[in-house]
Write a structure and sequence with these properties.
Elements (H helix, E strand, L loop, with lengths): L1 H16 L14 H9 L1 E5 L3 H5 L20 H10 L4 E7 L28 H12 L2 E6 L12 H17 L5 E3 L6 E3 L6 E3 L9 H11 L4 E4 L5 E3 L14 E2 L29 E2 L2 E6 L17 H11 L5 E6 L9 H17 L9 E3 L22 E2 L8 E18 L10 E8 L2 E8 L6 E20 L5 E2 L1 E5 L5
Parallel strand pairs: 1-2, 1-12, 2-3, 3-4, 4-7, 7-8, 8-11, 11-12
Antiparallel strand pairs: 5-6, 9-10, 13-15, 14-19, 15-18, 15-20, 16-17, 16-18
Helix pairs in contact: 4-5, 4-9, 6-7, 8-9
């Protein structure tokens, strides 16, 4: 009888020890390139063309190429300043609306070889790309579809030339993490001396499906950015923040009176919010210039955002599941102004110091709803994006408790879902155990790639509980962290 009991016990133990299957995916899912984009979090968008030397925001397309002469240009100094600021990538405006190309393109004479830069033999795109590779930043390009210099803009010949420009950029500058396309299209310009206004049908002129098929073929890891998004959507403002609730899933809605959505032609009021259960995974990029404008203007020396302002924008962009795209403007020397460098350095110090120590690593973490050993609560603090904690299929509203031996103090809480399986959580509540009872200290809605909550005041506690309030399916987390914000 004892032998039979032992056999039965062994069988029962074996049955309960069988590894639990992973949760089923939910809703629209990110691609591999989008997952890498989420990891980038903060990157820069560099505007530097003859427009800089004209002290304008938009060039008309008639600037003499000879004015582009940044005699002290140093890509490495710019890139290292961005790296010190915590940026992980750079998008270079290789051609803005003025039509001036920063590389020796074969498609137009209005390019860097017509300037004194490097004695007419320069390639500024290459210099920035090489500096990014050297210092470990990702590299991407912006090539404006609107061209205020090109005389054939508005005809099929220009579309062919534009696609050739993209092919040159896709071929000669290594792997790109983004291909960035502005929504500005058509209007007044120089157009080779015509000085006229050209209007195009944005829904059909560029043939975006064909144009972006080139991107997919030549740069399969490049995320395509546009207003409505193919991989990444515009957040709907140029102030650098998403809505309090911002879903990574998105179904674009056409602008009033339009039958379809095209770049620059949509109802972008929903962009800050996304679409719960949207058709596609299209997270928000929150773009904002470091200064007042996208290009350098000497009179805006006192308009540089402070490190504290940048950190606030970080919380409202990256901390709401998106990314922060920070506009960077070299001056006429070809360098960043000292005030820009100081602000970036301060921002980087706040970021590094604030998230250096995750107090969750010191806690005993438990949950009665844990799916199984492979999905242990230990995965929440292992600094591995590939591992995650998960609840059982029937447990849509699990609780996770963090218990410390000694009291800890924090005012930043960072939650990360395991987004390869979708954005699942709709709302969460966080409570601290104080004076023998649970006290609510924070709530949040959409989580996604990251949700960072800054408390009104620091909390001191030995026990904290994460409680899922609403989710249509079982829950996943790749990380939960408690931190103390650093002051600059």
């Amino acid at each position: 009888m004892k032998i039979l009991f032992a056999i039965i016990s062994t069988l029962l133990f074996s049955m309960t020890s069988v590894a639990q299957p992973a949760p089923k995916p939910f809703g629209a899912l990110p691609s591999d390139r989008q997952l890498k984009w989420h990891e980038t979090e903060v990157y820069g968008l560099i505007h530097f063309t003859p427009t800089t030397f004209e002290n304008k925001e938009w060039g008309y397309g008639d600037a003499d190429p000879k004015i582009f002469n940044p005699t002290q240009f140093d890509a490495e100094k710019i890139v290292t300043a961005l790296k010190a600021g915590g940026l992980k990538g750079v998008i270079l405006v290789a051609k803005h609306h003025d039509g001036f190309a920063l590389w020796p393109t074969q498609t137009t004479n209005y390019n860097i070889t017509a300037s004194p830069f490097r004695n007419g033999k320069g390639d500024l795109v290459k210099e920035v790309e090489q500096a990014c590779r050297k210092y470990g930043l990702k590299f991407g390009v912006y090539c404006s579809p609107w061209d205020r210099n090109n005389p054939v803009y508005g005809t099929p010949a220009y579309v062919d030339a534009y696609r050739t420009q993209l092919k040159e950029l896709y071929t000669n500058y290594g792997e790109l993490f983004m291909s960035w396309h502005d929504g500005a299209n058509g209007g007044d310009g120089y157009y080779g001396g015509a000085r006229t206004t050209k209007k195009i049908d944005r829904a059909t002129y560029y043939g975006w499906d064909t144009t972006w098929a080139i991107t997919r073929k030549m740069q399969p890891n490049a995320n395509i950015f546009s207003d409505i998004g193919w991989d990444v959507r515009w957040v709907g403002n140029e102030r650098g923040f998403a809505a309090e609730t911002s879903w990574a899933t998105f179904t674009p809605v056409p602008a009033e009176g339009e039958s379809k959505t095209v770049p620059g032609q949509l109802d972008d009021k929903q962009n800050p919010f996304g679409t719960r259960n949207g058709n596609n995974w299209v997270p928000a990029e929150c773009d904002v210039p470091l200064r007042k404008g996208w290009f350098y203007h000497p009179e805006e020396k006192d308009k540089v955002k402070s490190p504290a302002q940048l950190f606030d924008l970080y919380l409202k962009s990256v901390g709401r599941g998106g990314a922060l795209d920070l506009g960077i403007a070299p001056d006429t020397r070809g360098l960043l102004a000292e005030e820009d460098v100081r602000s970036l350095e301060g921002f980087g110090k706040i970021l590094n110091a604030s998230f250096k120590k995750n107090m969750a690593e010191l806690a005993t973490i438990t949950s009665k709803q844990t799916r199984g050993k492979a999905f242990s609560t230990k995965n929440l603090v292992d600094d591995n994006t590939k591992s995650y904690w998960a609840s059982k299929d029937d447990d849509h509203l699990p609780e996770i408790v963090f218990d410390w031996k000694e009291e800890v103090e924090f005012d930043l809480i960072r939650l990360r879902e395991f987004i390869p399986l979708g954005q699942r959580i709709e709302s969460v509540e966080i409570a601290s155990f104080e004076n023998g009872a649970w006290k609510k200290i924070a709530t949040a809605t959409s989580i996604g790639a990251a949700r960072i909550i800054l408390l009104d005041s620091p909390v001191k506690s030995k026990k904290v509980k994460i409680n899922i309030v609403s989710s249509p399916v079982c829950v996943t987390f790749s990380e939960i962290g408690f931190y103390k914000k650093s002051e600059f």
